[in-house]
Amino acid sequence: MRPSVRAACVLLRLFCARFSVFCSVTRSLDGKWSLSNSDGSVSLPAEVPGCVHSALQQQGYIQDPYFRFNDVSYRWIALDNWTYTTTFSVSGQLRANHKVLLVFDGVDTAASVWLNGIIVGKTDNMFRRYDFPVRDLLKDGDNVLNVSLLSPVLYASERRTAHSAYRVPPECPPHVQQGECHVNFIRKQQSSFSWDWGPSFPTVGLWKGVRLEAFDVLQLVRVSSVPLHSLSQWTVQVELLVDAVQTTNAQIALSIPELDSEQILQTQFLPGKTKNSFTLNINTSSQVKLWWPNGHGDQPSYHLTVRGFQGRDLILNTESKVYFRSVELVQEPVVGSPGLSFYFRINGKPVFLKGSNWIPAHSFQDQVTPAVLRNLLQSAVDVGMNALRVWGGGVYEQDLFYSWCDEMGIMVWQDFMFACALYPTEDDFMQTVREEVVQQVQRLKSHPSIITWSGNNENEAALATDWFNIPAAQRAAYLRDYVTLYVNNIRALVQEEDQSRPFLVSSPTNGAESEQEGWVAADPYDPHYGDTHFYSYSLDCWDWRTFPRTRFASEYGFQSWPSFSTLQPVSTLEDWSYNSNFSSHRQHHEDGNQQMLLQAALHFKLPNSTDPLKRFTDTLYITQVMQAQCVKAQTEFYRRSRSEIIEGRGRTMGALYWQLNDVWQAPSWSSIEFGGKWKMLHYFAQNFFAAVLPVGFEDGGTLFVYAVSDLSPDLELRAVVSAYSWSDLDPVCTLKSDLLPVPGGSAAIVFKQPVAALLAGCGSCTRLTCLLTFHLEDSGGQQGPTNHHFLSSPKDAQGLQRPNITATVQEGPAGYSISLRSASVAAFVWLDVGNVPGRFSSNGFLMLSRNRTVSFDAWRETSVEELSRWLSITSLRDVY
Ligand SMILES: *[C@@H]1O[C@H](CO)[C@@H](O)[C@H](O)[C@H]1NC(C)=O
Ligand SMILES: *[C@@H]1O[C@H](CO)[C@@H](O)[C@H](O)[C@H]1NC(C)=O
Ligand SMILES: *[C@@H]1O[C@H](CO)[C@@H](O)[C@H](O)[C@H]1NC(C)=O
Ligand SMILES: *[C@@H]1O[C@H](CO)[C@@H](O)[C@H](O)[C@H]1NC(C)=O
Ligand SMILES: *[C@@H]1O[C@H](CO)[C@@H](O)[C@H](O)[C@H]1NC(C)=O
Ligand SMILES: *[C@@H]1O[C@H](CO)[C@@H](O)[C@H](O)[C@H]1NC(C)=O
Ligand SMILES: *[C@@H]1O[C@H](CO)[C@@H](O)[C@H](O)[C@H]1NC(C)=O
């Protein structure tokens, strides 16, 4: 292997040449290693960063792990032990440094590290960075480094056995998930042992970089900067995590030139790894431009330079980005309501959080490329999302994820990685968790995108509502463990490391009220407090009365199947039916496939084609229609509830549906399929997350239209409501309300009329023959999208015909477009170009015009011929 020596202080190459004694030197050990299993029967080259599954696949030892039933076939991989080995040489110059560290940014998970036959350390936590001093072990010529990884399944089970005093449930995942047991005993991605949307692939490997770092005086391990606003003055808390060989006196210069702000301070770095904090006061005569969430303003950044001098010698020099914004979580009494408010104020402005929940983008993190991340985050902001919750059963995401969220204005609700389980609290477990928490907070706290930390996913609820049948006599012990882990340790550490943002102990939680009740509330789902998760698959999702009028909806959702083009590469002909073994195997949520059909059947005729393949693809389609319509109904309910208190409930200030993305090709709650293709739900989000949105619903036979506005200026809007016959493309009648005030950041009623009266005044319309559309307008024209309200279930609609839509694909200067012609009303019109990757400008729409043009943004080279060949158009009337 060719040594690649790189000066850490890149900007200082010239200085380094002259004063190399002050610079740290980094030698990457990434690249090709060799990998073998415990008895040596499998031996192959393996890429670092990487994991065993990826290496086996890349070398042809296994097929695509996602193909058909391979998650079960390849179970043996995680039951074996694996050793990564590399051989490298180091220069005498590197070895001449006073300190040489062997650094692992991520080891997955339980391993011992050997250098030249000597054990240098052990690891037990994939969320930690590890470094080991190795100066005296390095030698001339070949050095042999090996990392011996224990089966994570075996490790978890051994830890469970060692914890004999009492059980820490759940012991195993539900059978339908076909997963492994005791994942709560290993500090590793919790969903890697299976989840209700994902396969069991307990990964093993070196999932982040490995390198040597050598230095003589000191090394800057990390710099973080946290802007704080108080008494109308900005300061930036700058923290330098420094590893010094010996006590070093230094002069530190902090500056943000764009803000005419500079500070010079004397300091002393003590030997070893220390945290050194400094404050930069921002010049009060400078105008600080603030960072805003997507839809509320721009995301301007500034450059912070930190230099350290020892005498006249530059001993450290780093530049980082700083964004200024403040965040508060407001929990205060609400007029007319018991309980407390729960909303985020960004830069003093209450902001409604619109978005979704993020899960790992792949079972094998080494395959989450920048392009995959970018496409998902771009897909989120392009539909008007301003927030994502990084869910606690996955991983703390890579740096790039947060940098892009900063740049795109995506607010991140960051969970700590504990989910749907109770956890042990013995000393070594707590020690490794404490180190994990400190490291992750230090790594992430400079990102303005992160607006709150949250201790865990659903573990308060698991205790409160007794998911695990804890005997009453033992409850106190489990509560103690809960408070020990999340409150006395994680919360205390976070508050020590980061005073700039709120900390929530769990999600869902009653927040301040949970604290009053000893951190586990009697009912963490109480809509009068905090955030809520709500799922119901059997209740009619078109009926808004079934949804809790919560302060903040951080999880809710419905499953659907991905499209055929996504399933096809991982399945074969015999799999392509809704009742196949494959379809059951990919469904990890008990009764999930049945629930989707039952929910769909409430309003739609189910596909009944005699052609089995068409029936299968039509069924995939109808599950997406169901999901899109359900999440639309629920999201619109939350958005229109932002200003109201009804029966003591309301003032909803967040709607984060479950879930944005997928980890593999299977049915799930996601709005984006594995591979990046948008489901119908994601196209619907373009409308239901629009800044200005008309929401229509019925209450006691009266139609209400609310105008929801996330814009700052006050508006004056009217509703324009039209009735269409299912059998005619021209409206039967149109009604307009008066212009009414809609204050900035509010939801207001702009239209109200009994449906019976509306229909009586509208020709021959009945609930069965007509549907309603509506939009908002001001004196300047239409504001926001056109929405619709079905007066009956489409399955009962009279007059809906097969629309016989024809399409022409064209290529123009702006890309590809598809012109559609329809002879009649068509609902849920779905365009699909198979496996040509890309996205349409809109899809899944109600077509009430003879012509409509949709553009297609292709993510690779394609042609009019290819698109025309693959284009299929499905609408509701085409599936039965
Ligand atoms: C993996 O290592 C452990 C601990 O050394 C051992 O008990 C176990 O048998 C090994 N597994 C295999 C498949 O060799
Ligand atoms: C890893 O290194 C240790 C110590 O040199 C050795 O005992 C072990 O056999 C090595 N494992 C492999 C697979 O090379
Ligand atoms: C603040 O900025 C002004 C110029 O905008 C400069 O004259 C002044 O010295 C700065 N004050 C400090 C404390 O840096
Ligand atoms: C489905 O799985 C069952 C149980 O594994 C098996 O007996 C059956 O043959 C499979 N059916 C098909 C069509 O593959
Ligand atoms: C669509 O085509 C079918 C079959 O050719 C025909 O019966 C139907 O009337 C057509 N629909 C419309 C709206 O023209
Ligand atoms: C619809 O499109 C067709 C063919 O592109 C065109 O001839 C027709 O004029 C269009 N009709 C309207 C109302 O735009
Ligand atoms: C499918 O259902 C529709 C409506 O219920 C019915 O008219 C049609 O005959 C059915 N087709 C088949 C093949 O069963």
UniProtKB/TrEMBL annotation:
Its EC number is 3.2.1.25. Pathway: Glycan metabolism; N-glycan degradation. SUPFAM superfamilies: (Trans)glycosidases, beta-Galactosidase/glucuronidase domain, Galactose-binding domain-like. Residues 344-506 form the Glycoside hydrolase family 2 catalytic domain. It catalyses: Hydrolysis of terminal, non-reducing beta-D-mannose residues in beta-D-mannosides. It is found in: Lysosome. Its main location: other. Residues 1-23 form the signal peptide. Residues 800-878 form the Beta-mannosidase Ig-fold domain. One of its GO terms (molecular function) is beta-mannosidase activity. It comes from the Eukaryota. Residues 33-208 form the Beta-mannosidase-like galactose-binding domain. It is an enzyme of class 3 (hydrolase). The keyword Hydrolase applies. InterPro entries: Beta-gal/glucu_dom_sf, Beta-mannosidase-like_N2, Beta-mannosidase_GH2, Beta-mannosidase_Ig, Galactose-bd-like_sf, GH, Glyco_hydro_2_cat, Ig-like_fold. Keywords: Disulfide bond, Glycoprotein, Glycosidase, Hydrolase, Lysosome, Signal. The keyword Glycoprotein applies. Belongs to the glycosyl hydrolase 2 family. Exoglycosidase that cleaves the single beta-linked mannose residue from the non-reducing end of all N-linked glycoprotein oligosaccharides. Monomer. This is Beta-mannosidase. It comes from Zoarces viviparus.
